[in-house]
Amino acid sequence: MWNELLGAFFAVATLPNFVAMAAGIWGGVIIGAIPGMTGTMAVTLALPFTFYLPPVTSLLLLVALYKGSTYGGSISAILIKTPGTASAACTVLDGYPLARAGKGGKALNMALVSSCIGDFISNISLIFLAAPLAMFALRVGPPEYFMLMAFSLTIVASISGRSLLLGIISACLGLLLATVGEDMYGSFRFAVTEDMKSGLGVVPVLIGLFALPEMIKLAVFRPEEDTQAMKLGDNRLSFKEFQGSIKSIIRGSFIGVILGAIPGIGPSTAAFFSYSEARRTSKNGDRFGEGELEGIAASESANNGCCGATMIPLLALGVPGDVITGVMLGAFMIHGLTPGPMLFQNNIGEVYSLFIGMLFSSAFLFVAGTLTAFGFAKISRIPQQLLLPCIVILCVFGIYSVASSPFDVAVLLVMGIVGFVMMVLNIPAAPFLIAFILGPMFEDNMRRSLAISRGDIGVFFQSWISWGFFALTILFVALTIRREWQKWRSTSRATN
Amino acid sequence: MTPNRDFYTGLVATAFFALVLFVLIPVYVRVPSFIPGFAPPPDMWPRVIGWVGLVMGVMALVLAVPKMRRQSGKKVLSVGAYLRANRVFIYRFIWMGLGFAIFVYLMPKIGFLTATMALLAFLFIMTGDFSKRAWMIGLTLLFPIFLYVIFTEITHTPFPHGKWFSLARLLHLI
């Protein structure tokens, strides 16, 4: 193995490969930072260009775009409260308050460092743990997925803000909206118009919910105070601050690796899960959501921790872990490489070159992230009355370009209005979002499991993986009830 | 904002989930007459969510009353008084909704580019702050064109040209 890795090192260390990686990371960061432009779009757009490149160079370009766009989502999340990608939605919760407090630079630095560490750990894991984790992923069927989703939904409790009740209402809205369209057995639900039969896209809902309410708020309330407080201010991330978040970074990276290796889960779930865990265990847990650096560290390390890990099932089993690796599967095929166990026998040189290239790309991510993020920071100096309308227009263009669908634009604008109403009513948006993303997976796996078992709910308790997730779900529900009870008692005492 | 907000949140949530349970699900979720094997019907999951939402809405409503009475000096503002007190904000909100609806309606008629220019101008007007008038005019005219060029050249997005007239075609001719 070591000889192959050394050989791959020299094979990768060429100028064309470095140019491809640098271009991929840089382009990915920029695209990821633009609301509405996704990593999938970046990789898909680059695919035709890879026809003219050698296989390894092509794959390194695509992987670099993937990594760059995953990190890039955090830039707009922190500076303009608009997650460029779904996986950066969690970063908004603490990133934007920090930016408003004049610590945008610090937040960007933490996002970058966490992303690079998560990415590096993910790459190392890909190299050394590919086979065992792929074996684990193989054993996860619909009942285990259902339990995992149930456990993931418990994080609603920790991202609900001041009221668990309003958090659950928000999650119910998200779950309900996720049922729009055709279900797994071909029945249509809430398909009021023809366009709604295919359901609502995650990207328009996400962007609408996070980007547009700020504009509507500006138009409706017209605040007289200067809301443009998002200066970079104190840019340096001190060693003490980094040290304070290191546990969350390491834990987030491994959460990203484990969840990334399971096909279909992806970086959004990993980011929310890691954020939730960090909040539960941190001594600063109460400050999460108000501008806590550790929150950014947890979210960003997990979403970038997925990047290398999603390649594990792709390379070892030929199963794409998410949409982007699905596109990459096509790229492998175009270049005559068939992902799966035979790839490790027939094309071991290319596999190791990809591994080494991914390690190099972590370093490129750090350099490109440093330079690009602070270029984007200039956005924060633009007055709100100029910036927010332009963001809406950028979102409209971005959403239309995804599927050339006027319906998606309409969904974006309607979600903006819904997001504003939720903001006015104090209903938190984060539980809505996580429920909207996890809802279809939760329902599909529940219905699929019940169909397989002919209605026997015992199917959910047939493996130790299911039992493990079930125990964790019960534990966290009990802890949440206890916490809410204590909060209620202390409030009652204070008012009496 | 008003101290009655929690009460209205509960009220809106209760009304919404009641609407979902008793109107939207019966009308818009079709249950097939035959479901192969054992598979839960398509309305099961929305009903579960609807009931959970309804119970949470009612709880929010009930829990908000004592708090609201404490905060508003034993007085509870009626819905009418609440709307009257905030009518300027409500008018502006309605204007925003109308603006978005008109944009979606006009997009296929006047073309994507012209419609986004009009939307940007409308949003600038809605901010109510015209201290940077020159920037606003410049951005209204140039920013959508810049994005249009970027997206058509790089992503080859086929933006709608418009049935009535097309500024994009005019630009192509120029």
Automatic annotation (TrEMBL), chain A:
Instruction: Classify the source by domain of life.
Output: Bacteria
Does the record bear rRNA processing in its keywords?
Answer: no
Alphabetical UniProt keywords = Membrane, Transmembrane, Transmembrane helix
The question of whether Lyase is a record keyword is answered with no
Q: Where are the transmembrane segments?
A: 46-66, 110-133, 145-178, 199-220, 249-273, 314-334, 354-374, 386-403, 409-438, 459-481
- Domain named DUF112: residues: 19-433
InterPro entries from the entry?
DUF112_TM
Provide the protein name. C4-dicarboxylate ABC transporter permease
Native species? Thalassospira profundimaris
What taxonomic classification does the UniProt entry list for its organism?
Bacteria, Pseudomonadati, Pseudomonadota, Alphaproteobacteria, Rhodospirillales
Automatic annotation (TrEMBL), chain B:
Which InterPro entries does this entry report, sorted A to Z?
A: DUF1468
What keywords are annotated for this sequence in UniProt? Membrane, Transmembrane, Transmembrane helix
Q: Which domain of life is it from?
A: Bacteria
| Signal peptide residue numbers | none
Q: List where the protein spans the membrane.
A: 7-28, 48-68, 89-106, 112-127, 134-151
What's the name of the protein? DUF1468 domain-containing protein
DUF1468 domain boundaries = 17-160
